[in-house]
Amino acid sequence: MQQVLDLPEFLENAKRTVVVDVRTPLEFEQGHIPGAINLPIFTNEQRVLVGTAYKQQSRAAAILLGFELVGGKWADFIREAERFAPEKKILVHCWRGGMRSGAMAWAFNLYGFEVATLKGGYKAFRRAALDSFPKQYPFKILSGSTGSAKTEILQEMGLLGEQVIDLEGLAQHQGSSFGSMGTLIQPSQEQFENLLGAQLQSMDLNKPIWLEDESVLIGKRVIPKPIWEQMRQALVLKIQIPKKERIEFLDTKYGILDPEFLKSAVLGIAKRLGPLETKQTLQAIDEGRTKDFIEKVLVYYDKAYLKGLNSRRSETIEHIEFKSISPENHAKAIVELVNCAKKNKD
Fold first, then answer.
1. Which of 14, 94, 250, 282 is catalytic?
2. Phi–psi pair at 88, nearest 5 degrees
3. pTM of the predicted model as reported, rounded to 2 decimal places
4. Catalytic residue flag (residue 340)
5. 18-56 pLDDT tens trace
6. Has residue 339 got a pLDDT over 90?
7. Residue 177: how many other CB atoms lie within 10 Å
8. Among the CATH numbers 3.40.309.10, 3.40.190.10, 1.10.340.30, 3.40.50.300, which is that of 134-345?
9. Closest CA to 39 of 94, 88, 96, 111
10. How far apart are alpha carbons 253 and 232 in whole angstroms?
11. Does domain 3-130 have CATH number 3.40.50.10170?
């Protein structure tokens, strides 16, 4: 029997049941429920034809055309669904919870699947993501100069039970000219927002939520304005690591990358580096002197970081100094520091 679920129940079921998005590949690429599988009932072009029939003729004409276009593909849909949902339990949605998901759910149900659809479709999920951004969150910001291993520290803090949102992970970018690492492909802006919204909705608002200090742009993805504004007002814990240690750490990450990618990234900030520094940096890459290359670009990134930090209110910034890179130990020290501060406040 086919069920129609509200968004919270649908997402709860999605934790243990396959979600099938029957919208077109183009719609799915623009944005989708995290973890969903795309099984499009129409191609991109077919959807345009059906939509035109609906607007220019009638709902009945659109439905009839839809069935004609799908033709003998129903068996293929069922076989594909059996492949990734062998237990025959499945969740289905389209854009608004209308004809496409209804038709696919009917076919699955007829074959013997346990099926549920999403009331309001992807549109309901998208609206919930957007509605999550203006809410108030107990953000804490982990800050530090480039190469301080902030991402790795936050990952370790997550293992210790802290609430962490990895914005760079969601954006698939490390947040600098070199941030794609030569291989990372960013999601669409809409999908980045979907991923962020989903994580925000899963957070306990009675506990701190840790984020890394970021600019409003992570690669080409924009942090939603309400979240960005809260980040700029949040309490900041700035870690201080000696520059030599940061260079060593960055060399393990960037020194192994394709030299042509590194040179391309350097050229992307050439105006900020200046002609001489750009020339010397490119030469260091060509000669395999990766630590020299890193030291030169850090001059620019350290200045940019300090400019951003100095634009914050000083009373919102707390400092903690470490002598070396050790994400696991640093995470424990930060959690202990925060817990002690909370006990003293209580």
1. 94
2. 60, 40
3. 0.92
4. no
5. 999 999 999 999 999 999 999 999 999 988 988 888 889
6. no
7. 19
8. 3.40.50.300
9. 94
10. 28
11. no
